[in-house]
Design a protein that fits this description.
The complex is a heterodimer. By secondary structure, chain A is mainly α. Chain A has helices at 6-16, 34-69, 71-78, 83-109, 112-143, 162-169, 173-180, 182-206, 210-238, 242-246, 259-267, 274-277, 287-296, 302-318, 332-340, 343-379, 389-414. In chain A, 72% of the residues lie in helices and 0% in strands. By secondary structure, chain B is mainly alpha-helical. In chain B, helix 2 (35-63) runs antiparallel to helix 3 (77-113). The chains are: A mainly alpha, B mainly alpha. Chain B: Residues 553-562 have a biased composition (Basic and acidic residues).
Chain lengths: 416, 573
């Protein structure tokens, strides 16, 4: 069996089932014709996809209801999601659907080399997706953007140390360690997998087991792609310096610097005790104010300095310094958005976010499992123009997983 | 029998052909892909679950023998009672009723009735059996860890706060859900793609129609239960704030999600029973089923309408009054296809030549009990009366009349009907009838008083009650004991048949569906070549052979035309 040579494997299968020549080895005994087997499989996988859609429908329902009940929570919180990473993952999945569909075609035309390449690229895309996802998850876990049971995000200190998590938020030390180092925990299983596959590849090369080597080689690439995804995610999540300019208090600078994120922080920057102390800095300076600030740094530019002073005075008045203490006169939209950032409000958004993306990620993992099985079978050259059902069925499943992400991305990341 | 007819009888299988004996050893059963063996293993499994659930039920009834509680004593008595009724409900629903007819009898019968060799996905079939086993293990471990006291519905917020093992039990139900989905998927594909040549949709036995309708519900509704339970587990472990009001969730959302599955699940339980009854009534009345198409379509109608009525479980949960009115109106529509079935069965029996065999006794009790169960449902579907009857023993009695008086009785009837086919032995007919009578009397003794209890205001799920209810409760308990005895009796009748029953002929009842055209028990390959398909309810050519005590199918001798043999050398040679 362990050979890539199609001729020898075919003769072997013929030996096993030599008694019945109009019933090929790949046709199950209870089916009369290949068409019947293919139709059954096709109907079966479509029904399975129906159950999958209904499985997700529960969560989409929950999303719709809570979005209807508390739209401001969803608007406020979706700004914490990194649109760039989401967009890249969308692209990756769409590309993997292309390679998957191409793989089905290759199985039909018996282009075995291309088939293996296509399935391996689909797998690699799945791994890149998971790599990016683990960056997104670990970043949020570190900030405490969690379901309401464990939500501890604090905008005064968005990136607490493990010790702070223990002291201020009452987590156990091991939980705090996990939250601050979650990326390592997420990567660990894949690292172990990578090392295992690498050892397998070397071993099968050394002992000259061609079939095993042929399997291990693409799998090695697949495992590496996960870390490619992690790297990509890291660059995008931490990169970009424009954030520091836009920000006045500069505390978060460089931590989460993409433009959307800056927006998010921008609108939620009001300190918690707005009404109580009135000690409000000019936190809501528009971007042209930043330019004025830059100009005013030069002592010669008196016009800009005067303008800045006037603006600051206006801002002080606007934030209520001239209003009597205790009157919440002008808090308006800020007040609402302020309230959004609580355990009980934002937590529900993140509860739904983790449920939906988590279950989707589990489906990606399941897809990876069946794709590896397909990869090995296609290296064994099991498929031919009459028997390509499994590739077709897995392809349909993969397209559904892709499709669900196509819905998740705008619903969670884009709609404001 | 005149000489101008030839009779057809498949005879008896050899040991090498018999699916029970063609291979031996425990592994040949554990890894079998044969749908008949899997069906038999399911049968043993669901019977075991039924025994456990039944003993828990007896525990409930014995506790209620006395107003202050009789069975469980001590400070924990009420907690134990809560756990016992919860596990009774959960085991009976998830481990027994849902898989009983579709998985046990359906697995055995669907391919044979189709003249196929196996279901479309035999490996998936075996894996659903093992999923069932894993689910059962989770339930048992919930029983032995810290119990479960939420009621089988796992309503939040209690289920997110109680310290009993909700997670184990919900994981069990989640896994059982997938077992059920895969079984349904398998049957839909099998019925769609593997019908033999000549069997059009309207030449299928009605059992297959019912199984098909059931499978549609299993595939469409069960995933919603899956995600609901998964979210409940997430709620308990991570507090995701969807169902738990403490974290801004909404408990009524949980109820909507839960009943969106669990009301259609009621039809997963009852539809296959309808299928069995359609077979039993027609075969044992030896008369063509009345209104075949109406029965077939009404199964599908029930399956679809069943998705629109879940709200009637929640009339008191605080939905808007418009919503409750709509749900109430939709609920009444379900009674139309159900009534169509009952009337068609009665019309089938009318002027039939009824043999009062054991399966027929069960079928007749089914019609009686299911009608009571269905009619009392109308009081619960009516908004005004439901507010009074909600969460009382009236509800308990109503759904037991449908689930036990309906599904269990039909299941028993089906087991007695196909027992000779499954194991190849005949049971003692008169003892079987006595057992069915005991079951009928015991069942009514248990649950008729509960209608009265409920309408007088006895709430369900209480461990103790006012002394004024004592007489009716005691009557119900004695009825339950009688019911238990009857079931045990029926079980013993079946077991004794294995030891000393007469060898079953291929067609002991005179059925015309395909399973009676192969030997009893069937050979492992079912049919050597696709069988001839006729009308499944045409009994004209089935005759009783008194000497051999079996039915044989006869057909008029076919004259070959032309009579004389042509010349030895064909003309075109």
């Amino acid at each position: 069996m362990a050979t890539i040579d199609s001729l020898s494997s075919e003769s072997e299968t013929h030996d096993e089932h030599g008694h019945d020549h109009d019933h090929p080895a790949w046709l199950a005994h209870h089916f009369d014709t290949p068409e019947q087997q293919f139709d059954s499989g096709k109907l079966g996988i479509w029904l399975f996809l129906v159950t999958e859609v209904l499985f997700f429908s529960g969560m989409f329902c929950a999303y719709a209801m809570f979005r209807m009940l508390r739209p401001e929570v969803f608007e406020g919180c979706s700004q914490f999601l990194n649109t760039k990473l989401g967009a890249i993952n969308t692209g990756v999945l769409l590309f993997s659907s292309l390679t998957m569909a191409w793989a089905v075609r290759c199985a039909q035309t018996e282009e075995y080399k291309k088939l293996v390449v296509m399935i391996a690229s689909t797998l690699s895309c799945a791994m890149v997706f998971l790599g990016v996802k683990s960056i997104e998850y670990s970043h949020k876990w570190g900030m405490g953007l969690l379901p309401p049971g464990s939500y501890f995000y604090d905008e005064a200190n968005p990136h607490p140390t493990a010790q702070q998590i223990v002291d201020q938020h009452g987590f156990s030390e091991s939980a705090a360690y996990f939250l601050t180092h979650s990326l390592y925990f997420l990567c660990a299983p894949f690292l172990i997998l990578l090392i295992g596959v690498a050892i397998w590849a070397v071993y099968s090369k050394v002992t000259d087991k061609q079939f095993q080597y042929a399997c291990a080689k693409p799998l090695l690439v697949v495992c590496l792609s996960f870390f490619g995804g992690v790297g990509l995610g890291m660059i995008l999540e931490s990169g970009g310096g424009e954030h520091a300019v836009a920000h006045v208090d500069g505390e978060h600078a460089g931590d989460h610097g993409d433009a959307d994120h800056a927006h998010a922080d921008h609108s939620h920057d009001a300190p918690a005790e707005v009404a109580a102390t009135h000690a409000v800095p000019a936190f809501d300076i528009e971007s042209d104010d930043a330019a004025i600030e830059l100009l005013a740094e030069s002592e010669l530019n008196t016009g800009a300095r005067a303008m800045l002073e006037a603006k600051q005075a206006q801002a002080e008045m606007a934030t209520g310094q001239i209003v009597a203490a205790g009157v919440e006169a002008d808090l308006g939209i800020h007040r609402i958005e302020q309230d959004v950032q609580t355990k009980r409000q934002a937590g529900v958004f993140f509860g739904i976010y983790y449920c939906m993306t988590g279950v989707h990620a589990i489906h990606i993992l399941g897809g990876i499992g069946v794709l590896v099985w397909l990869l090995i079978r296609s290296i064994r050259q099991d498929f031919n123009r009459q028997y390509f059902g499994p590739v077709d069925y897995v392809g349909l499943y993969w397209h559904l997983v892709d499709l669900i992400w196509i819905y998740l991305f705008p619903l969670l990341y884009l709609i404001r | 029998m005149s000489t101008s007819t030839i009779s057809r009888d498949p005879g008896y299988p050899t040991d090498r052909e018999n699916y029970l004996t063609n291979s031996s050893g425990i592994l040949s059963w554990m890894f079998t892909l044969d749908h008949k063996r899997i069906g038999l293993m399911y049968l043993i499994g669901v019977m075991t679950a039924f025994a456990v659930g039944g003993l828990l039920a007896l525990g409930i009834r014995l506790h209620l023998l006395d107003p202050e509680g009789w069975m469980f004593t001590g400070a924990e008595a009420n907690n134990i009672y809560n756990q016992v009724f919860t596990l009774h409900g959960a085991i009976m629903v998830f481990l027994f009723i849902i898989p009983s007819v579709p998985a046990a009898l359906g697995n055995f019968l669907v391919p044979v009735m189709l003249g196929a060799k196996d279901v479309a996905f035999p490996r998936l079939n075996l894996s659903s059996f093992y999923l069932w086993c894993f689910g059962a293990i989770f339930f048992v471990s919930a029983l032995f860890s810290s119990g479960l006291d939420t009621g089988w519905t796992f309503y939040t917020p209690y289920s997110t706060t109680t310290d009993t093992s909700v997670i184990l039990a919900t994981l069990g139900a989640f896994i059982l859900g997938f077992s059920s989905i895969f079984t349904g998927l398998n049957f839909i594909v099998t019925i769609n793609t593997m019908r033999p040549p000549g069997m059009t949709w309207f030449k299928m036995p009605l059992f297959l129609w019912a199984t098909y309708a059931t499978s549609i519900i299993q595939v469409l509704a069960t995933p919603v239960l899956g995600i609901t339970l998964l979210l409940l587990i997430a709620e308990r472990t991570m507090h995701v704030g969807i169902f738990d009001p403490e974290f801004n969730g909404d408990p009524v959302t949980y109820q909507h999600f839960f009943w969106f599955y669990s009301h259609p699940a009621v039809y997963i339980m009852i539809l296959p029973a309808f299928g069995i009854i359609s077979e039993l009534i027609s075969v044992h009345s030896h008369k063509h089923i009345f209104g075949y198409r109406f029965i077939a379509y009404s199964s599908i109608a029930i399956a679809l309408l069943g998705f629109l009525v879940w709200g009637h479980h929640m009339f008191t949960s605080g939905m808007s009054s418009l919503t409750t009115i709509i749900f109430s109106a939709l609920t009444f529509t379900v009674s139309v296809p159900s009534a169509i079935k009952v009337f068609n069965w009665l019309a089938t029996m009318y002027k039939g030549s009824i043999s009062l065999t054991t399966p027929m006794c069960y079928a007749i009790s089914f019609i009686f009990l299911f009608t009571i169960g269905g009619l009392t449902g109308l009081f619960l579907g009516t908004l005004a009366t439901d507010l009074h009857l909600h969460d009382t023993y009236f509800v308990v009695a109503h759904f037991h009349y449908v689930m036990v008086g309906g599904t269990l009785i039909a299941f028993l009837g089906g087991v007695f009907h196909w027992w000779p086919k499954m194991v190849g032995k005949m049971y003692n007919e008169s003892h079987g009838r006595i057992a069915s009578l005991l079951v009928f009397l015991g069942f009514n003794g248990t649950f008729l008083p509960q209608f009265v209890l409920g309408s007088r205001g006895m709430p369900r799920r209480y461990a103790t009650y006012d002394p004024e209810f004592a007489f009716l409760h005691q009557m119900s308990t004695y009825g339950a004991l009688l019911l238990g005895c009857g079931l045990l009796y029926a079980f013993i009748v079946l077991m004794l048949s294995l030891a000393k029953g007469r060898r079953a002929p291929a067609n002991p009842w005179g059925g015309a569906t395909l399973e009676w055209a192969c030997t009893s028990p069937p050979p492992y390959y079912n049919f050597e070549r696709p069988p001839v398909v006729g009308d499944p309810y045409d009994f004209h050519n089935i005759e009783w052979d008194a000497k051999e005590e079996k039915y044989i199918s006869t057909e008029p001798e076919r004259k070959l035309v032309p009579e004389e043999t042509p010349g030895q050398v064909p003309a075109h040679h």
